[in-house]
Each structure stands twice: as structure tokens, then as C-alpha cells.
């Protein structure tokens, strides 16, 4: 079955996903941080920098595109999807259209994008996409996440997943619980377990074939306003939450980085893979900011910096590849910005 | 002295659900905590509660699934508060003319509901066991090979049972002693993801030939005990995937133990 094959491939040990699906607005913020104008050519140039970085793609099993990027080409005229295909990397596509506030809640949201989704997925499949992504967002507050928010987001994820599978795309199920807040790691664990349980119930209700899906959850950590804990503690709480909720039929769990610095995210993933415990799914990465931050800084928008930036990118790709194997020694040559927190309060894509 | 943990059945049987076609829910929650405390004092360390569902044109209904899953979760939570490991048993009866795919679909739906309910009720999965039916064709349908049963069963579990659950102890549900052993063995031979051990919780399928051999006569006790040992050893090997099907088959070992619409 093509879905199960592609999902399993994405979870190949030693590989992970590059999330390069920043919407035009979001990528604009990244470009602004290095004083680069948010025009299509710059967006294209940044992505070309990443996809053609020498030696990097061997550590990448999939790249998530934003719609604009799916149809873009290298400067020499080759489609990005073809660049990826030549290196055995699966193209993916972000299909949600962002979040909207849920009526009567304290700024909880649901995710839109179901209208005409089947037709869009068919188009994306024809363009070469083989997996999709949909980001649901929840937050921890005094009474949040509410049952309504959990149900709506789980249901949205399940509807989206079922439609994707009908169109030959492996759905990445992403129920992100924002790290914002003063709560401790135990609270995050309890909420994560509750949310994941709701997601897998919804997926079952909607007849989604788990072997042809991926999970993109947050790691279980203290809130952003709480004291940090060791990677081993994050690893234990995270893997335990997954053991309690994620059926073994799911081939891989590809974590989001959610504002962690590049180095933090890598070290936490590494700690999980070193843990000696039941892990019937591979544990890998689907990083956006945590793969691109130092690359962006090294590039600065200047053509003469491309090679340097590509080297910085390779460093992070290799480090995260090792983290999926539990062999990262923390010795990645830290580019400028690699240890910098990428947390932005109430992050909106 | 034999290093065996005592367990205790704590449900009080099934009662029909109003407005359904003979579907049931399981009783036993009233005063359950007090009873569990007593049982713990008497030496029990785990408990069992049997929920029953059936496959038919419209069954199992959402009501039956929800009520039974909720009952199991309430019972499980109370047990844990009293120090007893709850065995979660959502038996889907084998009665019927449905094929193995239908059984698989229903089993997956029921197990998913059970684990959602257990999560809702804050049950610690590491301290529970699951006692499900194997995934098989209905009793009025043609039989299939043990390898087929093994594949469908393990796949259903992979799709629904979180890795935190330490072990799955199958019910035998009317299979003959030998059938049950062979099917369990086939599951343990399967090369696939199995983060829980796969074992047995057999009643009839461990006792049938022993019963026949004993026939209530004191002079038969030793022979009957030999028969029991044969089945115990066979099933032990089945949990390791090393059963060679060579257990000295006593009278009755290959006999189907299916009783239509079985009520305990």
C-alpha cells in the first residue's frame, strides 16, 4: 500500500522532515529578521539554498512545502519537487488555511481548510506531493484546553486525514500544544495525553488507516515561563505520553520544535532515542525554525553567503540525523544562533 | 507458594440495554470499592470484569459500545484505587455469519472506544491488562488458518492498544483447547511490532479435557492433573511461539467449546 510505504519511509532511522512550509506572511517575518525583502524571488532563493545544500538531503526523508513553493524552480529551471525526487526525498504540502478563534472560548482556535480539500489534494498529488500537513493548535491555560477545543481540533484532524488518504497523500497529524505558560512538565504531559487520546479516537471514528499516517506532536516540556529541565526528563515524559496514547500501527512520530533552539531540539530528540523503553514508532524530527535558524543568519540574503549558509544547514541536518539514532554527541559546530531560543509568544504561522 | 497472583471476578453479570436488540451492559459498580478492598486484604492482586458485545446487522450499536467501554473504565479506575490491576475484557462474541474482516473492524472500533474511555477516566495503562477476543470469522462462517487469525488480531491490536499496556491475555471464546493454543502460537511467531506480550487467560480452553478426564471421580484426579499440565505447557510454549502442535491430545482437546450466545 503506497500510503503505508511512504509513511514508513519518512520515518527511516537517520532521516527526518524539513518543514519549509512557512506561509508568505510567516516567511516574511523570518526574512525581516535578516533584513531581506519578502518578495517571491527571495522566498524562492531561500528554498533553493536549502534544497540544493550539498550533502544535506541524505538526512532528509521529506520536505513540507507551502503551495507557492510546490510549483517553484531552481534558478536553472528545475522544479523543486524534481530536485527532491532525484535525492529520494518525498515532497509534502501544507493544506490547512490557518486558525480561527472558537466562539465563546478564551482565544482557543480551530483550523480551517476542509472546503474543497479533496480537489486541492488531487492537484497536489499530480504535482508530486506524497504527504500533507495540517496544524491544529491548543494552549494550556487555567481552564484550557477545553473539551470543545480538543474535540473540534481532533475532529478537524481526522476529517483532513481521511480526505488525504483518499487522495493518496499521507496525512501528518499535528496537534500542537503551545509551550506558552507557567505550567510544569506534569501539566504538559497530562494535557498531551488527553489531546493525543482524543486524536486517535477521532482517527478511528473516521476510519483513517494509522499505518499510513504520521504524528507531529509537541515534545512534553515545562511551559515557557517555567524553569527548564534536563533533556532526559523531557525524553521520559514525552515517550511515556506517546506510549500511553499512540498505537503501534503509527510508523513514525516526527516532533515539532515549537520555539526550542536548534541545539535544544536536537539534544531532546537524541535523549528520546537513547531511552531504553518500548518505542514501536520511530522518533524523528519535522523541524522548521530549528533546522533553518542559523542557516538564515549565515545567509543574510546575500548570494556570496550561500555556500556558508548551506554548510550551516548541513550541520543541523547531520546533527538531527544522529539524534534520530541516539548518537548525537552535542558536538555540532554551532553556527550563530544555534543556541538561541526561537520562542515567540502565541506563535502564529 | 507457587508464585502465582490471585485475581478476582468482580462484575455481577450482564443486563439488557433498553431499546436494543439483546445488547447488554455489565453490572457491578455499586459498592465495588469496598469489595475490592476486602479482596485485596484476602490476597487478590488483580481483578476481572467482562463486558459483552455482539456482531449482527446493526450491532454493536454506539450505545452498547459506549456503555460497556465506560463501565470498563469506571471499574478499572476503582480497582487501581484499591491496588488491584484491572483486566479490561471487552468480549465480542464469535456468534454469527460475519467474516474475519467484519470482526476486525468491530474489534478495532470497540478497542478504540475502550482506550479513549480509560484515558478519560485517568486509568494508568501500565497497571492494566487487556483480555480481548481473537479476531476470527463468525461461528457460522468457514474457518481460516491460524496465521490469518494471527495477522488480523495483531493488526487490530497495533491499531488500538497503546504500548504502555504490558500484556494482552486472550480469551478463548468457544475455541477448542488446541485451536486456542495454535492461534496464540501463530501470533507469537509473527514478525511484527508487538510492544505488549501476547498470552492467554483461558477458562474452558484450559480445563475441558481435564474436566472430562476427572469426571468427578477421585481415582481420576491424577490423570486429570496430567491433562491440565499438558494444556498449561502447550499454552506456555504458545506464548513463546515455540508450540509444535504435539501436545498429547486428550479426549476433548480438539472439541469446539462454542455455545451459542454464551452466558457465564
Automatic annotation (TrEMBL), chain A:
InterPro entries: Aldolase_I_AS, Aldolase_TIM, FBA_I
Localization per record: Cytoplasm
GO molecular function: fructose-bisphosphate aldolase activity
EC number: 4.1.2.13
Enzyme class per UniProt: lyase
Pathway: Carbohydrate degradation; glycolysis; D-glyceraldehyde 3-phosphate and glycerone phosphate from D-glucose: step 4/4
The entry's keywords: Cytoplasm, Glutathionylation, Glycolysis, Lyase, S-nitrosylation, Schiff base
Domain of life of the native organism: Eukaryota
Major localisation: cytoplasm
Catalytic reactions on record: beta-D-fructose 1,6-bisphosphate = D-glyceraldehyde 3-phosphate + dihydroxyacetone phosphate
Coiled-coil portions: none
GO-annotated biological processes: glycolytic process
GO cellular component, one term: cytoplasm
Keyword Lyase set for record: yes
Stretch forming the signal peptide: none
Family assignment from sequence similarity: Belongs to the class I fructose-bisphosphate aldolase family.
Protein name, entry field: Fructose-bisphosphate aldolase
Lineage start: Eukaryota, Viridiplantae, Streptophyta, Embryophyta, Tracheophyta
TrEMBL record, chain B:
EC number: 4.1.2.13
GO molecular function: fructose-bisphosphate aldolase activity
Catalytic activity: beta-D-fructose 1,6-bisphosphate = D-glyceraldehyde 3-phosphate + dihydroxyacetone phosphate
Gene Ontology BP terms: glycolytic process
PROSITE patterns cross-referenced by the UniProt entry: ALDOLASE_CLASS_I (PS00158)
Xref: InterPro entries: Aldolase_I_AS (IPR029768), Aldolase_TIM (IPR013785), FBA_I (IPR000741)
Keywords for this protein: Glycolysis, Lyase, Schiff base
Pathway: Carbohydrate degradation; glycolysis; D-glyceraldehyde 3-phosphate and glycerone phosphate from D-glucose: step 4/4
Protein family per UniProt: Belongs to the class I fructose-bisphosphate aldolase family.
UniProt protein name: Fructose-bisphosphate aldolase
Upper lineage: Eukaryota, Viridiplantae, Streptophyta, Embryophyta, Tracheophyta
Amino acid at each position: 500500500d503506497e500510503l503505508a510505504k511512504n509513511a514508513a519511509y519518512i520515518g527511516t532511522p537517520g532521516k527526518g522532515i524539513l518543514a519549509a512550509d512557512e506561509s508568505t506572511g510567516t516567511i516574511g517575518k523570518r526574512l525581516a529578521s535578516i533584513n531581506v525583502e519578502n518578495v517571491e524571488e527571495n522566498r524562492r532563493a531561500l528554498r533553493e539554498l536549502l534544497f540544493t545544500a550539498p550533502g544535506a538531503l541524505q538526512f532528509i526523508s521529506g520536505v513540507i512545502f507551502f503551495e507557492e513553493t510546490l510549483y517553484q524552480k531552481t534558478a536553472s529551471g528545475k522544479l523543486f519537487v524534481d530536485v527532491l525526487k532525484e535525492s529520494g526525498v518525498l515532497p509534502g504540502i501544507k493544506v490547512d488555511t490557518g486558525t480561527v478563534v472558537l466562539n465563546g472560548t478564551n482565544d482557543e482556535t480551530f483550523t480551517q481548510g476542509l472546503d474543497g480539500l479533496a480537489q486541492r489534494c488531487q492537484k497536489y498529488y499530480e504535482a508530486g506531493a506524497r504527504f500533507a500537513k495540517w496544524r491544529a493548535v491548543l494552549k494550556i491555560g487555567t481552564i484550557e484546553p477545553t473539551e470543545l477545543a480538543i474535540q473540534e481540533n481532533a475532529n478537524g484532524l481526522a476529517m483532513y486525514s481521511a480526505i488525504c488518504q483518499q487522495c493518496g497523500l499521507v496525512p501528518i497529524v499535528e496537534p500542537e500544544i503551545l509551550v506558552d505558560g507557567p505550567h510544569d512538565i506534569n501539566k504538559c504531559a497530562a494535557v498531551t495525553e488527553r489531546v493525543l487520546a482524543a486524536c486517535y479516537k477521532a482517527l478511528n471514528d473516521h476510519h483513517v488507516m494509522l499505518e499510513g499516517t504520521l504524528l507531529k506532536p509537541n515534545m512534553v516540556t515545562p511551559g515557557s515561563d517555567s524553569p527548564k529541565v534536563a533533556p532526559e526528563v523531557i525524553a521520559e515524559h514525552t515517550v511515556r505520553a506517546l506510549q500511553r496514547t499512540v498505537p503501534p500501527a503509527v510508523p513514525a512520530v516526527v516532533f515539532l520544535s515549537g520555539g526550542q533552539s536548534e541545539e535544544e531540539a536536537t539534544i531532546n530528540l537524541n535523549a528520546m532515542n537513547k531511552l531504553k523503553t518500548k518505542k514501536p514508532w520511530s522518533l524523528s524530527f519535522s523541524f522548521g525554525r530549528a533546522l533553518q535558524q542559523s542557516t538564515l543568519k549565515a545567509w543574510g540574503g546575500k548570494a556570496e553567503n550561500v555556500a556558508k549558509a548551506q554548510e550551516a544547514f548541513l550541520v543541523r541536518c547531520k546533527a538531527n540525523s544522529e539524534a534520530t539514532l541516539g548518537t548525537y554527541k552535542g558536538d555540532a559546530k554551532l553556527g550563530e544562533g544555534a543556541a538561541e531560543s526561537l520562542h515567540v509568544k502565541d506563535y502564529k504561522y | 507458594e507457587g508464585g502465582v497472583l490471585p485475581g478476582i471476578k468482580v462484575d455481577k453479570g450482564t443486563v439488557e440495554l433498553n431499546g436494543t436488540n439483546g445488547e447488554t451492559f455489565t453490572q457491578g459498580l455499586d459498592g465495588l470499592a469496598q469489595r475490592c478492598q476486602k479482596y485485596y486484604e484476602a490476597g487478590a492482586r488483580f481483578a476481572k470484569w467482562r463486558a459483552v458485545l455482539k456482531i449482527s446487522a446493526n450491532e454493536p450499536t454506539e450505545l452498547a459500545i459506549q456503555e460497556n467501554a465506560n463501565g470498563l473504565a469506571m471499574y478499572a479506575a476503582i480497582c487501581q484505587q484499591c491496588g488491584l490491576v484491572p483486566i479490561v475484557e471487552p468480549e465480542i462474541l464469535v456468534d454469527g455469519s460475519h467474516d474475519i474482516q467484519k470482526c476486525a473492524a468491530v474489534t478495532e472500533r470497540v478497542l478504540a472506544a475502550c482506550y479513549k474511555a480509560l484515558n478519560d477516566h485517568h486509568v494508568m495503562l501500565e497497571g492494566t491488562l487487556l483480555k480481548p477476543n481473537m479476531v476470527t470469522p463468525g461461528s457460522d462462517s468457514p474457518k481460516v488458518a491460524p496465521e490469518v487469525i494471527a495477522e488480523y488480531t495483531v493488526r487490530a491490536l497495533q491499531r488500538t492498544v497503546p504500548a504502555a499496556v504490558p500484556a494482552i491475555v486472550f480469551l478463548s471464546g468457544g475455541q477448542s483447547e488446541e485451536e486456542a493454543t495454535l492461534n496464540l502460537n501463530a501470533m507469537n511467531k509473527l514478525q511484527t511490532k508487538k510492544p505488549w506480550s501476547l498470552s492467554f487467560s483461558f477458562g474452558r480452553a484450559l480445563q475441558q479435557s481435564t474436566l472430562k478426564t476427572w469426571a468427578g471421580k477421585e481415582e481420576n484426579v491424577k490423570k486429570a492433573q496430567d491433562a491440565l499440565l499438558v494444556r498449561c505447557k502447550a499454552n506456555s510454549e504458545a506464548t513463546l511461539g515455540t508450540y509444535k502442535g504435539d501436545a498429547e491430545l486428550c479426549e476433548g482437546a480438539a472439541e469446539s467449546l462454542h455455545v451459542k450466545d454464551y452466558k457465564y
